[in-house]
Recover the amino acids of this structure.
């Protein structure tokens, strides 16, 4: 978790950019990305030199005549001399970066059109001086600082793309339990938030030895993304690099176009594709049209995921509510495809305030597995009412910050004290219960106390054998057939009978509480009493004047 000191220093750098005439958030992030990368190259070279002293072989990043490009030497130059190296498009530092080999720069191919945008030498000098005060030697700290920078970009685009709140990403990643054998993709990568959080989950749930044994897979094959915005390509690559992925596969391609031919390649997809966008039908991949004949991007992305997943691969994707209940042939067709021909696992309805202050759109998370042979039996629905923050434009934190930050970062082996803390915070923070219920439904304990419909069974067994010590209070004893609750199961047949409608309101039962009012005569009498009291007070005030 980023420290208050680091936040303060990043905020001060932001203010420096503003005072220097650069106010566009994406521009600031991109320029800082370049500087962090240049600084990191020097740190890598320094580590390589230390290895060389121990007799270990390494390849140099900087040749003898490129030593001036190293961060430690840039710091020693005069303000104007240093700035000249940055703006020199022939023999300066940017041509050097563009020519780095793939093994030295995992996003060298995305740097071709990179341009240095700090036109004032004094601004560059001030920013570099402030960067020196931030300790980024630790990999976790480096990633946290960069994530905090990216959080300043939380906003929306014209095609309905909104940066997903980090705690929602963390929940989705924890629901899917990424493993070291997974090949993970986000076909609408943006800044690579889903991929980065998947990497963080791997780092926190596997030992160093296990990770080291899978190092080549992690560096070259595990993390994949698609993006066609040149700025996002660079930022996504740097984000993954700063989180320890040396050569991520961030493809420069419109994921829905004919140019993207990837199929049957990934075991896990995590995504929040653009909402409300449309694409020229002539550019759409024919394989997607075969699944759903539409130009709506939110539907096409679901078709794309089915194509890109391996058989047995799973996906967690955020969709606008319209996908769940839309009545067009395209809407019903993609839902029918997922439900009837594959396995729909869950639909988690989210409150509209999740994307505020940038959008009030209502969304849900769909979780499904590609089978090509059906398998949907009972679909788990969850009605999320609170995500830990206020649902207004302020989005203030409503729960303990430590709990909010750490709720998802284990495989579920929480202490009894932590489980109790999560249960007590439920009214303001549903995410721990969402994880807990889903874990229970997927565990070996499911079925010991419940029918397949979710109704409770009378069982004679010890609490430990039923999982009571592994889950939050009431998770094991919850009635998953109770549709007045936030968490319930719906059978396949009922969904099919409702035109594959997946909106939670279609199945949730609302309990109306009877309210009794006093008789009209009683209410009128009270009004008369109040009126008499008012008249009496006015009379007394008049007498005092």
């Amino acid at each position: 978790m980023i420290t208050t000191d680091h936040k303060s220093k990043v905020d001060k750098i932001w203010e420096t950019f503003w005072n220097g005439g650069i106010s566009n958030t994406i521009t600031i992030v991109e320029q800082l990305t370049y500087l962090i990368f240049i600084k990191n190259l020097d740190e890598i070279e320094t580590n390589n030199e230390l290895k060389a002293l121990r007799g270990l072989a390494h390849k140099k990043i900087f040749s003898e005549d490129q030593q001036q490009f190293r961060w430690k030497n840039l710091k020693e130059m005069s303000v104007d001399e240093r700035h000249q190296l940055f703006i020199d498009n022939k023999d300066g530092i940017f041509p050097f970066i563009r020519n780095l080999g793939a093994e030295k720069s995992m996003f060298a191919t995305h740097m071709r059109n990179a341009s240095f945008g700090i036109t004032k030498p004094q601004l560059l000098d001030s920013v570099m001086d402030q960067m020196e005060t931030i300790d980024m030697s630790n990999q976790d700290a480096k990633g946290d600082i960069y994530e905090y920078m990216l959080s300043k970009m939380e906003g929306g685009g014209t095609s309905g793309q909104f940066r997903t709140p980090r705690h929602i990403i963390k929940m989705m990643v924890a629901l899917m339990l990424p493993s070291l054998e997974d090949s993970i993709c986000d076909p609408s990568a943006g800044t690579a938030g889903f991929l980065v959080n998947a990497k963080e989950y791997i780092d926190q749930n596997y030992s160093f030895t296990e990770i080291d044994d899978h190092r080549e897979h992690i560096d070259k094959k595990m993390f994949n993304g698609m993006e066609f915005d040149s700025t996002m390509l660079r930022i996504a690559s740097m984000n993954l690099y700063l989180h320890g992925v040396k050569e991520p596969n961030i493809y420069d391609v419109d994921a829905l176009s004919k140019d993207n031919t990837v199929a049957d390649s990934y075991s896990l997809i995590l995504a929040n594709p653009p909402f409300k966008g449309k694409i020229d039908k002539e550019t759409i991949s024919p394989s997607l049209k075969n699944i759903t004949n539409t130009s709506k991007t939110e539907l096409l992305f679901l078709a794309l995921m089915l194509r890109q997943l391996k058989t047995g691969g799973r996906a967690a994707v955020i969709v606008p509510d319209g996908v769940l209940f839309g009545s067009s042939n395209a809407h019903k067709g993609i839902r029918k495809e997922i439900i009837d021909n594959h396995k729909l696992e869950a639909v988690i309805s989210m409150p509209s305030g999740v994307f505020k202050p940038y959008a009030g759109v209502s969304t849900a998370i769909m979780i499904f597995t590609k089978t090509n042979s059906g398998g949907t039996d009972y679909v788990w629905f969850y009605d999320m009412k609170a995500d830990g923050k206020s649902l207004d434009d302020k989005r203030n934190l409503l729960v303990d910050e430590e709990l909010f930050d750490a709720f998802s970062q284990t495989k579920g082996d929480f202490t009894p004290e932590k489980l109790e803390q999560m249960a007590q915070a439920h009214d303001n923070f549903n995410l721990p219960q969402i994880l807990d219920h889903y874990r229970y439904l997927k565990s070996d304990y499911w079925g010991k106390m419940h029918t397949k419909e979710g109704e409770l069974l009378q069982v004679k067994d010890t609490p430990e054998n039923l999982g009571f010590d592994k889950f939050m209070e009431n998770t094991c004893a919850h009635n998953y057939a109770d549709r007045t609750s936030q968490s319930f199961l719906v059978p396949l047949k009922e969904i099919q009978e409702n035109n594959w409608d997946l909106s939670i309101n279609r199945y949730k039962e609302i309990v109306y509480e009877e309210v009794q009012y006093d008789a009209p005569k009683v209410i009128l009498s009270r009004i008369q009493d109040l009126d008499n009291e008012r008249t009496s007070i006015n009379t007394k005030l008049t007498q005092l004047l």
The two ends are 66 Å apart (CA to CA). The mean pLDDT is 88. The longest strand covers residues 309-320.
